[in-house]
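Q: I'm teaching a short session on how sequence maps to structure, and I want students to see two examples side by side rather than one. Could you give me a first protein with its sequence written out and its structure tokens following it? Keep the formatting plain so it prints cleanly on a handout.
A: Of course. Example one:
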Amino acid sequence: MSPRVTGILAMVAGIAIAILGGTLFQYGWAGILGAILIVGASILFAIGATWMLRKSWADKTWPPSRPMDPAKARRIMRRSAVLRFCVAPLLIGWAVAAMVLEPSIWPGALVLTVGIWELFYGALLLLWAIEHPPKENFWTP
């Protein structure tokens, strides 16, 4: 079986185990088993996602050699920064609405903190990407 097929099967099994673990939360002490199953499912899902990147089982290099064109890398960085700048005002608006409408200020303050962090980190990521563009012919993120 190829690493890609094995990875997909491991990810599907991880999702099924996580659903099973989530249903166990409603049965008292079985919730502890459910939490352990969810942790195991998360690990299995991550391993499956990693296996999907391998070309063959004989390939022992890490990270898997998937070269990326510098122009494509810049496009990905630019799109993620634009996405962050689009999501941040929505989060800040939601935070203000939550602080006005909710009796408790903490949910709104938490969302406001996340929104401001998104703005700050998005600007920092964009400035870093402008300052340090990929220069090689092939760049592995």
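Q: Perfect. Now a second example for contrast.
A: Example two:
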Amino acid sequence: MKIKLVLLLFSFSFLDSNAQEFLDVAGGNASIVNTGTTKLEILSKSPSGSAGVGFGDDNTVKAVTGYSGGDDLFKINHTPELTSNHLTIDNSGMIGLNSVPANARLFIKHNSTSGLSGSAHLELQETGPSDFARLKFTNEGNTAQWTMAARSEDGSALLNFFYNDGTDFANILSLDGDLFRVGIRQTEPEAYLHIRQVDANVDALILENDDQTGGEKWGLRIEDDDLEFRFEGDLRAYISSATGAYTAVPPVSSASNLRKASGTSEDEIMNTISQFDLRNPEDLKEMETVLPGLFHQAEGSENLLLDYSQLNVISLSALKKQKALYEKQSEQLIEIDQKTKSLESRLAKLEETLNRN
């Protein structure tokens, strides 16, 4: 059923029983006025019929919006009929573009094309020429957020993926569009793949094989400016940044088992060893009760032999950690010294100002 209302260039109005004006048509403009709730209902008497309002010009309907009873959807179409699916909304609020709604809050159906003049499913445009267009992902009740930020400026094209925990944020992945490079924790990658190792004692890269019993892992990291190769977390070799020398380290599976069995770190193991005299058999026996994984029984003898291959690995790792701690503390001392000099300079200026007054 269709109802066409033509608004001519003259004025008329309808009054309710209380003489309250509720529809006024004047000069082609219509208004509905009521002292309470204002409501206009357009209904179809058919159980699966449609009811809509058409819009157009030159006495022709070109767009229509309304309820489509056949598929139980509200529609907005740039066509004369409600049979198209330009924008659809179902009774649960799901929205479809160029389609009926799917199992998503917003579903877009489109045949996209590539290139500068291509047509995309969705386009975000930033008004600032050098700023980023952003897409955020959050959880209700939580201040943390994931963000995708893209800048399509020739010469500084960048796509960032970063996470903000509510206080601090860090760029996780960055794609340089001009140089076709990828950075991990690095927004200005200097290679096709640039990985920035931010935290100590964390591998920059891990290679893991597919093993049903549990994948074995090779790790690569920078430690004290040296390039380290680790297997299952244990140091197997390193390349010195100072000399370029490659140094192989004996297998450390036993040393790894020793740490796991004793529940202590390399530093604690070395501290325990330093309390004993390795030349004294009695001390070695007592030490064996504390760190049994470091010893083995001599063949045909009751004497205990110290496995120095494990000791070398543990001591090397402990020394590298101590060196890193020393360098960190040295940097802190330099920073404290700079702050102290700055405060002394400000104090001198303050004294000079007071003396002038």
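Q: What should students look for in example two?
A: Point them to this: The first strand starts at residue 12 and ends at 15. Also worth mentioning: The two ends are 93 Å apart (CA to CA).
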